Structures are given as C-alpha cells and as structure tokens.
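Appendix C reproduces, verbatim, an entry submitted by the partner laboratory led by Prof. M.T., so that reviewers can inspect both the input and the predicted structure.
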Amino acid sequence: MAEQEANCLTAFPAGEQTVWADVSPFLGTVCRELEVGELIHGENFNLFEAMSALEIMDPKMDSGMTSCGYNSVEEAIGSGAAPIKLHLLQTIDVMDHLLACEATWHKGHSLAQTVFTCLYLLNLERTSPNSLLHAYCKVTRVTCNLIRSFVSQSRTHEEEDFFTMAFGLPLKGEGDDKCLSILNAVDETVARQLRACKNSVTRKKIADDYESLQPDPDLEEGYCKAVLSRLRFRKSFYHALTYMGKPQGRGLEMAHKHIVSGLSELARIRESSDFLSSISSRACKGEFDDRTTASGQEAVGFDASINSRLLSPTPPRSINILSWKMAIDYFEKLLQDLDRICLLPLNPTIEEALQFAVDFQKSQPDLVSRSQLQLLIVQDGKLFGRDLLSDVICRAMKMPHLANNRDFQRNDSVIQLGRLILNLLRILCTNIAYQHRKLGKSLQEWDALLHQVEMTCNNQQNGTSSGSGGEGLWMRQMKSWAEEQTCWIACRFLMLGFELELYSPSEYCMIYWYVEHVLMTLFHYKAHKEGITLLLSSSAKKKGKKKRGKEAEKEIRLSPDILLLQCCIHLSKGLTWMLAALSNDHKFVNCPTIFNTEQERFVQTFELLQKSQVPEPLSYFQFKQSTSYINLASLPTQMQFDYFEAAQKDLKKLRHCFPKDSERLHEIQQLEHVAEKNRIALNVIHFAGQAGCFPRVSFEFSHHPLFAVAVIKRS
C-alpha cells in the first residue's frame, strides 16, 4: 500500500514531457452518476487533504466564481458602469456611498470589498474632467492610506481583521500631496456659487459670470450646501488626522479645531438629507432605512465583486455596507473620540495615563481612535515621545532625584520595568477581548520582574551584592510600586470579565470575593505610598469612643482615588455577603452547571492569578471557609454595619472631589445607584424572611457594568 501511494505521488509533478489528457467527458459522466455526498478521489487523498480542500465552482466557497459583475475594471468602464459626466445628484450619491464604504472598512472589513468597490478609485486619473468627483475621490484615497499607515504602526488591529491588507490596490498615486489644493479649488468654486445664490439682487449678474452646478436655479442653493458640507468634512477630517500624527502631540490643538469643524459639517450633511431625498425621483417617506445615500438612490460607479479575484483563495467574506445614517453616526462618534484624545494633558503621571486609557475604553472606541491614542502615548519608546521611562518611573516612585542617576537608568530591572509599562499601555489600547487575554499573560511577566527585584534586594541585605545603600532604598521602593501596578493589572483583568460576560451568575460570589481581596491589597499599597498607615476607615472605628483632633482628621483625609477604591471594596464585600447568603439558602435564581464543579470553575477562573505572588493567591478552600457560614439568618448581624451604606457615605464625599470631571461624576452616580438598590434589596429580603416568604432574587448590571444590582421577584 505504501509503494502504491509513493508511485501515485511521484506521478503528480508535471514536466516538459508531461502529456495532458482531457478529462471533461469523464467528469461529465461522473457528475450524472454521483449522488449527493459521494466523492471520487485518488489514493493519496487522505483526511488532511479533505480538511484543507476547497470546493470549487460554488460561489459560496470559491472566490473566483461570480454569478454576476465584471471580470476587470476595464470591462466595467467600457460597459458604461462608471460614467464621468454625472448629474450633480449622482455625484453626491457617489460621495455618500463612498463614505458608507469607508465606515464599513473601519469596522474591520477589507479595502477590496468596501472602499475600492468604487470604480472611480480604481482608475482615478480618468475622473479629471469631473473636478468635483476627482477632488473628493482623491482626498478619500489619501485619507484611507493615512489611516492604514496609523493602524499598521500602532499594531492594535487583530489578526482576524483585514483592515491593513491592501491587496495590491492603488492606495498611492501621483499628486497625492496636492490633494488639498485640488479640494480647496473646488471648494472655492462651489462657495462662490453659493454666495451668488444667496444674493438675490445680483443673482442674475453673478450667474452670468459663474457656471451653475446644475440646470435648475431654484435648487442651486440646496445643492451647493450639500456639496460644500461634504467637501469641507473631508478636508477637516484629513487635517485632524494629519495634525494628530505630529510627534510629541504638537498638533493636538489644531487637530481639535478641525475636529470641531468636522462635527459641524457632519451636522450640515445630516440636514441636507431632507433636501436630497425630496428631489429624488425614488424618494418615499418611511423607506430606505438601509440606504447608503442621502437621496435614497443607488450610487453609480460601484461593483461589489470587481476585486473578488484579488482576495485570498478562501470562502468570500459576505459583508453589508453600513447605511448612510449609520456611517454619519460612526464618523460623528469617531471625531468625538479623537477630540477626547486631543484634550489629554501631555504631562500626566503614568497612573493618570493608564487611567485615561481605561476611561477611554468605556465609550467603546473603534480601531482608528484607539490607534491614535497609542501612537500619542507611546512614541519612540518614550511616554508621549518626550519622557524617558526611567524618568517616568522616578516620578511614580516619588524619587525625582534619580532622574539623572546613570546607575538607575542602566539598571536591568529598571529597563525591564520600562518595557512592561510600554507593553501595558499598548495592551490598554486594544479591544477589551484581546486586552483581557494579554493582561492575564502579562501578570507572569510582572511576577518575574518582582522575583528578580526581590532577589536583588535580598542579596544586598545579605551583603552578597556590590550595590550601595542608596540603590537598596530605591530598589525596595521600585518593588513596592511594581507590586501596586501588578495588583492594578489583576483588578483590571477580573473586571474585564464582567464587560465580556465571561462569568455566569453562579460565579459572581467567588469573583467579588476575589475582587475584594485584590482591591484590599491595592488599597494598602496606595495607602502606604501616601503615608496612610491605617486600615479602611470603616474598620478602624472603635465602639463607644470618638476620635478627635489630628488623628480623626488624618483618618478622614483620604485622597479621592483611595476613597473611590474604598467604595469599590465596600460594594464588593456587600455583594459577596449577599450572594453567599442567597446561594447557601438556595434563594438565588441560578442555572446549575453540569459540566464542572464549583471548585473546577474556581481553578479555571483564577488560574493566572494563582501563578502570581502579588496579590497573594487564594485557594478554593479559603473561599469556602469564608463564605460557607453566611446565610439569611445572619442578615441582622450584617445590617449592624451595612457595607452598601458605608459606600454611599464615601460616594457623597467624592461628589465634591471631581467638580469638573463629568465622566467621574457619572461613575459616582452609577455606584450610588448600585449601593442604594442593593441596600433596599437587603431590607426587603430581611423583612420577607421574617414573614416566612423569601422572594426570588437575580442580579443584573443595569446601573454599572462591573457591580451587579439585586432584582427581587415574588416566588
């Protein structure tokens, strides 16, 4: 059998002496006789070949098979699919559909199936007689190439996206650097015509001097406004991207001005929809919700299958172009996200930069804005392209005198810590699914660094190292700061699981229990750094005694960040207790899992945290030991000190700490709702239990993405 297979394999390679035979009659006969599911194959066709084989001549599987469309751009142009002489409404339709294609490309689809389905872009030189169409298409192509370059540099795109693949398409051309001058010339011509339309006294005289955009003078003003808004949006968008690409954030102020201008032009584009749809012969109220143009008409000069032969030999990816309204919404949100980046201060601490990246993700930004954020924060291995990582670490450790210390800058642990910080910033600019995976893996790298620093500190303490006493001091300080960041990463890793919906309700109790442990560890590191050597203010109270003077003042004066962290600890504790009590008394609405036990789920969920020395790993036995005794009968004991009430008190103090930070105030308001709703739920459960009728309780994330709210229903 092996010899026969070898003979078959040696017969396959073709050479000059190979004689080809026509097998078409044989295949025709076989096709008529084969039933569904039957297959003819050679002896060397095994399971591996079957798994990697491609079914040909099926449009769903074979990208080379097309039931309609053109075989080449020349054929499409020759058949009149992309005329140059267009009515003005048709030109606007091309602009709108091209904008929808660009938004679809930003969402992760390929250039070949979105932007470059436009026949005009595939042969841009032939559009020169139509100056309006030529200018718009040229600046669109240049903008797409600019965005593709930004995303490729940042490497925030995922492997499964086709975002940066060009497929040999003409993304660059002669005169691309002059695209703005061409656009400005067309803009000035249309602006003059608009001024002529508005001047009713001299309209006739000016109309003789300038050529009208279309034959109907009553529609001229509406057309001019629609065209101008589209041209000026493209100009503002291009300017904003160009200025944001300048090193060290030097162009952010100008980028902000152009973003504001772009948003106003988008508003005018929206307003033009009523005018364009009213003059369209196909306009009809209540229809065209999925239209890709403002007029509702189908744009000319596009063919979805024109580039099908440029794609990889895999099953073609079926896509739907975003509607015109969705495209406008997308670009509006994109500009708003870019504007947030422009308003970022260029001299923040590393903690502030990390927190900004986390807060930025709350608005669910798309790939383009996340790429811009990373390119701004991380430039040439420096923070914002200016600050060395060693200087950033010095300021974070509150030891600025080390900034010019050569030994500190050349230390292997400092260099490794700088690399981990840059990697962390890059991770925080990716999407949350990729971010969750990478944060979990990065914990091992941070743990290895901590182990290395600890060994160095121990060697210095035992006298086996040649380092000075000063070096030992900043090494211990760096170790403490790195441990704090490791706790922050662990907390972010666990919290992202809620946003990604990775946890089932049966796991909420163990998750909040572990989150409380991580937050407590982080709290102590932060408190130690700020010189606060005390436990949570709520646990430091003494019965029957009141603290006065400086001691009480010191206890109250926690920084806003630590106070917010304390609120999250209270909420985690309260939810842990509530979930444990309901689960132990079987009052929690929860679907049992049949595939693995609770202990197995605990190990799977916290596997990466168990491998790290900071925060201290906790076992399943510790979890059961701390929650198994809790039940609804112990509710009155819990109500003597209500964690939700403590969180509410701290949140009231925080309101005055962020008077101008609307985003932080909104988060505080969300946490207040969580604390209030859960406190009410505790009271309802308590009084229902006294009456002997326990309600059914479930949990949902209706007020905050990370902290659940109890929902009570009658049993």
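Confidence is low (pLDDT under 50) at residues 1-11, 282-286, 533-556. Additional entries are available on request from the coordinating office.
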